[in-house]
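Hi R.,

Quick one: here's the Aspartyl/glutamyl-tRNA(Asn/Gln) amidotransferase subunit C sequence you asked about.
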Amino acid sequence: MSIDPETAARVAKLARIRVDADALPALAQEFNTILGFIEQLGEVDVEGVEPMTSVTPMRLKRRKDEVTAGGMQDKVLSNAPDAREGFFAVPKVVE
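And here's the predicted structure, written out as tokens:
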């Protein structure tokens, strides 16, 4: 697959990025380089390779999924700049 400057302009527009017309050929070339790297990754044989979460072998920390009663409303609201009647109080934003 090859990206031309017109396609690069369309991608930039979709991404809401302003790109000057004289920079479009260089951007298209960068896209083509990236696509080339992706094609190289597709050629790698990963059959039998387990997915990993890190380059170092370690297990993720897990905790039990237990329902608690909470009971920390006062503690949580103590951090609020303004709390009223057990809730966070915020300025009115809708007229």
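The chain has a mean pLDDT of 89.

Cheers,
M.
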